[in-house]
Amino acid sequence: MIKHVILVVLLYFFGQTAYSQTKHSYRSPLNIPLAISANFGELRPNHFHMGVDFKTNGVEGLTLYAVEDGFISRVKVSPFGYGKVIYIDHPNGVTSVYAHCSAFKGKLDSLVKITQEKEQNFEIEIYFTEKDLPVKKGDAIALSGNTGSSTAPHLHFELRDTKTEDALNPLLYGFEIADHKAPEIRGIKVYSLTNEGYQIPGKAKYFKVTKGQFGYYVGGDLISIPSDFSTLLGGIGFAVEVVDFVDGSTNTCGLYGSALKAEKDTLFCQEIKRVSFDETRYINSHKDYVEYTVNKRKFHKSFKTDENPLDMYSCSQNNGVIPVKPGDTLAIHYAAFDLKGNKSELKFKTAVLAGSPNTTATIFPSWKYLFPDSSYHFQSDQAEFYVNEMTFYEPTLKNLSLKGTFSLGDAKTPIQQAITVKLKSSNKPTSKNYLAVTTAGGRVKPLATSIEGDWLTAESIYLGSFSIKTDTLAPSVTPLNFKETDLITTKKRLTWKVMEYQTLLSDYDLFIDGKWVLLEYEEKSNYVFYDRPSTLTGEHELLLIAKDRCGNVKEWRKKIKFQ
Ligand SMILES: [Zn+2]
Questions:
Q1: Ligand 1 mean position to 165 CA, how many Å?
Q2: Residue ranges matching CATH 2.60.220.30 in the chain
Q3: Rounded CA Rg of the chain
Q4: What is the pLDDT, as a whole number, of residue 491?
Q5: CA 481, CA 38: separation in Å to the nearest integer?
Q6: String of b and e for 505-538 (b: at least 16 CB within 10 Å)?
Q7: What's the confidence (pLDDT) of residue 440?
Q8: What does the pLDDT look like over 520-560, one tens digit per residue?
Q9: CA nearest to 338, candidates 415, 255, 433
Q10: How far is the CA of 285 from the centre of ligand 1 (A)?
Q11: DSSP string, 187-220
Q12: Are 347 and 240 in contact (CB under 8 A)?
């Protein structure tokens, strides 16, 4: 009897809190109480949030510490993405990542500067071996910042499986965040689906979910859907708009886990513990893409397509596709929970109205649609499109035009991998020509283009319409924190605004008396800056060169006296 009690207690103990009870020896990367503004797995454009965002009191410059013994295996400086970022490999097979830093510390800082000087480039990436830069737990490695695509000061922190580079949910590894708030359910959608989990166009219904005194409810606990939501081969599926919160913060966080039951059967479960970088873009198949991009609503589907490889579905019966007939009524139970076990539930009945089911023999005719499991090559004497297998998430409207105007699909439809676009120019193309795609917002986006004979070729991660453009305009360079007419300055940092109007900035360099010096670049604000060492005084000649992708060059020159 005592043995049984112990077993039950142990099962309870480990079953309920397996992760938080597992011994982890990581220390905090910061010396302030840990608070997050974003958690792991949050829905973002084209990717899940692959780490956690630790708050840094709204300021830059807090010291960052190695969370465990190990060695710095990689460092990168970029005006995009992670900005200044450090990777530390630990003996337990985990890599910790510290992104958006403002500066590096010690030997790493001098190694980065030496490499930038040698390569005459602000943007660098260095890989190190175990012997180069060993670190001890608690060593100061960098200062927190706001570099790269970060829009406010914070530390983006990741843990990765060193071998596979899969991102791991850091909050499962001993980083404690107080959380007594259950996820918040805001809406549900019902979809008519094919057996492969594809959404049947025009057959989805949204229902608002309300929080009452006794929990969440929808309608009068009964929702009705038209009879033609039922199909001969497919069924229906549910998606739920749900966000989460942690204590002491108003930031919305992402959903950790969910389970969907129809009658007594658990049909579909989610638990986001790890995501591979190769698969993170499948978020476009996981979330309701249109709701996310058009209505800013965060719907998690409780069903998936055959092609969706994400590792986060801990149970999936028939891909979450529920077969129904007109006249059926189903009891649905949905639970959303966070990794501290706080839980919200929604119970309701779904009635499929009496009438005829959808009997359309071919829902996606092959002359009209492109399919996930096929590759395609379309060709005319003016244009070519190459599409690999596993490019589309769902059957996608073809909308093909190969003469006069050039288009494939719709810019509003996401794709998993880039397509190859080739257009023939009527005049002999030069380096000033490039291919562009018109995106969903109507913006004309330049594509990295190669030219061979009369043909221009580019990869595009957008569908839509494509055209040949010409760029003969050089970037502009404007002093930002001093005046064009200043002859003398006491400024330690000189900042310029560098604007490229059509393509992208490809090169930016500053020379003082003909010698290259480090010019830092922040892409999000279009500014470049130079930090002058205190030893540099007197009159000097500055030459700032900005070049775009089509080779248009702007040279900004000035003699200035530093004081
Ligand atoms: Zn982040």
A1: 17
A2: 369-470
A3: 28
A4: 93
A5: 33
A6: beebbbbbeeeebbbbbbbeebbbbbebeeeeee
A7: 85
A8: 999 999 999 999 999 999 999 999 999 999 999 999 999 99
A9: 255
A10: 21
A11: EEEEEEE-TTSPEEEEEEEEEEEEEETTEEEETT
A12: no
Q: Return the H-helix or E-strand segment holding 115.
A: helix 106-119
Q: Could you tell me if 246 and 39 are in contact, meaning their C-beta atoms sit under 8 angstroms apart?
A: yes
CATH architecture entry for 476-562:
Sandwich (2.60)
**Chain segment 63-86, per-residue pLDDT in tens:** 999 999 999 999 999 999 999 999
Which residues, 6+ apart, have CB-to-CB distance to 147 below 8 Å? 79, 83, 84, 100, 101, 102, 522
Query: What are the start and end residues of each CATH 2.70.70.10 domain in the chain?
Result: 17-172
491-500 pLDDT per residue, tens: 999 999 999 9
336 neighbors 261 (Cβ within 8 angstroms): no
Give me the DSSP letters along 59-76: -S--EEE-SSSEEEEEEE
* Helices (H) then strands (E): counts for the chain: 4, 46
Q: Tell how far the Cα of 81 is from the centroid of ligand 1, in angstroms.
A: 10
Closest to 40 measured CA to CA, from 201, 257, 228? 257
Residues in a beta bridge with 489: 562
What digits encode the pLDDT tens for the residues 163-194? 999 999 999 999 989 999 999 999 999 999 99
Residue 61 neighbours by CB distance under 10 Å: 12
CA 264 to chain centre: 36
Delimit the CATH 2.60.40.1220 region(s) of the chain: 476-562
Q: Do the strands 343-352 and 222-225 form a parallel or antiparallel pair, or are they unpaired?
A: parallel
Distance 187 CA to ligand 1 centre (A): 26
Closest CA to 540 of 560, 517, 515, 554: 560
For residue 51, the CA-to-ligand 1 centroid distance in Å is: 6
Beta strands in 23-115 (DSSP E): 36-38, 43-44, 47-48, 52-55, 63-65, 70-77, 84-89, 94-101, 103-104
* CA distance linking residue 172 with residue 271, whole number of Å: 12
The pair of structure tokens assigned to 316 is 């999936």
Quote the pLDDT of residue 11.
Answer: 40
pLDDT of 129 strictly over 80: yes
| 214 Cα: distance to centroid of ligand 1 (angstroms) | 35
Residue 1 has pLDDT above 60, yes or no: no
Distance 274 CA to ligand 1 centre (A): 15
Q: Tell me, in angstroms, the distance from the centre of ligand 1 to residue 37's CA.
A: 9
Q: Is the four-CA dihedral 197, 226, 184, 146 of positive or negative sign?
A: positive
Looking at the structure, give the CATH architecture of the domain made up of residues 369-470.
Answer: Sandwich (2.60)
Beta bridge partners of 231: 358
Instruction: Return the DSSP state at 145.
Output: B
Q: Give the distance (Å) from ligand 1 centre to CA of residue 451.
A: 37
CA distances (Å), 184 to each of 271, 396, 460, in order? 16, 33, 37
Judged by average pLDDT, the poorest of 13-27, 180-194, 269-283, 471-485 is: 13-27
- The first and second tokens of residue 3, run together, are 């043995």
Record: fold of 17-172 = Glucose Permease (Domain IIA) (2.70.70)
